[in-house]
Structure formats: structure tokens, C-alpha cells
UniProtKB/TrEMBL annotation:
Family annotation (Gene3D superfamilies): 3.40.190.80, Fructose-1,6-Bisphosphatase, subunit A, domain 1
UniProt keyword annotation of Transferase present: no
EC code(s) of this entry: 3.1.3.15
Annotated protein name in UniProt: Histidinol-phosphatase
UniProt keyword list: Amino-acid biosynthesis, Histidine biosynthesis, Hydrolase, Magnesium, Metal-binding
Pathway(s) where this gene product acts: Amino-acid biosynthesis; L-histidine biosynthesis; L-histidine from 5-phospho-alpha-D-ribose 1-diphosphate: step 8/9
Sequence similarity: Belongs to the inositol monophosphatase superfamily.
């Protein structure tokens, strides 16, 4: 099925009405994970609430999986996957590299998605018509770079500290093979793969709501998104996104050691 850009804009606008007034406002931050720090804010919860309401009104038979408010009707063939603020740590730090992620799966396959960054006024989305951008500079189709060599690639990861044990040793060797490595930016780094500014993102331990929306955006722009082992990325896990199939294969081989 196709999802109209008008519906994605409505979702982006509704979420922005909840997130932007709370951004850089020094609001309360709760911790969801005892013994660690997994922040959540009122903006996360309220943005997901309005997104779920829009989806339920438009597609009452569809299921929903959200980071903050759980799941409903996920036995449906059509399931929406929501991360109201991907990059809450950036959000509470005042950095505009967080985004609202909303994706649609059909029979488990990601077929449409959007990433909205309302502070910068950017919307990245994919539907049946392809992958697109709206924002500063004007609308355009998204196209990945044609990089095929690790030696010419720009790599992002949230932080190398997420790689544990032998995986950290393999990551360090991998990073030394690329031209430029940078850290952080969460969903924004994945959007930059689709936009042709970044070549590789390698992030371990992602949840479905961290990646489902981004899969069709990258794939329809010409990139590849899988687990480190080459499996489907829709269920999360250790996720590798690359600008070209050749670069993806090289990165996957490097991460395997």
C-alpha cells in the first residue's frame, strides 16, 4: 500500500507541536532504566500520543508499536513503528540531531517511513514514489553516494563504547580503514546516508523503533540496510547501513573480522 506525503506531513506537524515547545526548555527528564541512563521526557510521551491518534483515526485496523506506549494489534499485517524522539539524549542536551521516526511494515517488511527534524525544518521520507527530502534548499529526491571503497568512506556510529569485547577490537580495525569516522547523531546519521553525505552507519543494539522508519528511506535512495550478519533489519539488532551494495559488503566483512 502507498502512504501519502500529506499524511506524513500531518504526522510530522502534530509531533512537532509537542516536541518543539519543549526543546531547550530544561524540562523534567525521567530515567527508564535502573542502573543505567535511558532518558524519557514529556515530549517523547506526548509526541507519540498524538502520532498514535492520527494513525488510529486514519488506519483503524492497523497495528502500532511505539517506544513509549507499547503495542496494540501487532498481529495485523500492517504495523506502524514509532520512535517519537530518536536521540532523546541529544534532545535534552539541546542538540538538533534528534528526529521523529514513523515507519510502516507490511507482513514484517518496512515499506514506508519518515524522519522529521522540526528544529531544522527537515523531512526525509519514503513511500511508493521513492525517497524524498523537504526542507532548506528545496525539495529533492534522495540519492546515496556511489562510494564503493572503505578508504573513501565516511563512517558514523553512536559511540565505539557500544561495541563490547572482541566486537570492539573488530570495530577499531574497521574504523582505521575508513577515511573519516564521526560519532553520535542517532537517526540523523542514517538520514545522511540517504542524502548522500555519509557512507556508512554501524550501530549495535538497536530496537525496531530505532530503524524501521529509516530502512525504506535508505533503500529507496539506493543504499543497503541489514544486520551485521546480513539479515533483515526490521527487528533491530546490530545494524549496518551503507551507500552501495559494494560498500555494504566490504563493511560487513570488516565488522566480522
Amino acid at each position: 500500500m502507498d502512504i501519502s506525503i500529506d499524511f506524513m506531513r500531518r504526522i510530522a506537524d502534530a509531533a512537532a507541536a509537542e516536541t518543539l515547545p519543549r526543546f531547550r526548555s530544561q524540562g523534567a527528564v525521567a530515567n527508564k532504566e535502573q542502573g543505567s541512563f535511558d532518558p524519557v521526557t514529556e515530549a517523547d510521551r506526548e509526541a507519540e500520543r498524538v502520532i498514535r491518534a492520527l494513525i488510529s483515526a486514519e488506519y483503524p485496523d492497523h497495528g502500532i508499536l511505539g517506544e513509549e506506549h507499547g503495542s496494540e494489534n501487532i498481529s495485523s499485517r500492517h504495523v506502524w513503528v514509532i520512535d517519537p524522539i530518536d536521540g532523546t539524549r541529544a534532545f535534552i542536551s539541546g542538540l538538533p540531531v534528534w528526529g521523529t521516526l514513523v515507519g510502516l511494515t507490511v507482513d514484517g517488511d518496512a515499506v514506508a517511513g519518515m524522519m522529521s527534524q522540526p528544529f531544522t525544518g527537515e523531512l526525509f521520507y519514503a513511500n511508493a514514489s521513492g525517497a524524498h527530502y523537504e526542507g532548506p534548499g528545496g525539495p529533492r529526491r534522495l540519492t546515496t553516494r556511489k562510494t564503493t571503497s572503505l578508504a573513501e568512506a565516511t563512517l558514523f556510529t553512536t559511540t565505539p563504547a557500544l561495541f563490547k569485547g572482541d566486537a570492539r577490537l573488530r570495530y577499531d580495525l574497521f574504523e582505521r580503514q575508513v577515511q573519516l569516522a564521526r560519532y553520535g547523531t542517532d537517526c540523523y546519521a542514517f538520514a545522511m546516508v540517504a542524502a548522500g553525505s555519509v557512507d556508512i552507519v554501524a550501530d549495535p543494539g538497536l530496537k525496531p523503533y530505532d530503524i524501521v522508519a529509516l530502512i525504506p528511506i535508505i533503500e529507496k535512495a539506493g543504499g543497503v540496510v541489514t544486520t551485521f550478519e546480513g539479515g533483515p533489519a526490521e527487528r533491530g539488532g546490530d545494524i549496518l547501513a551503507a551507500a552501495t551494495p559494494e560498500l555494504h559488503a566490504a563493511a560487513m566483512a570488516a565488522l566480522r573480522g
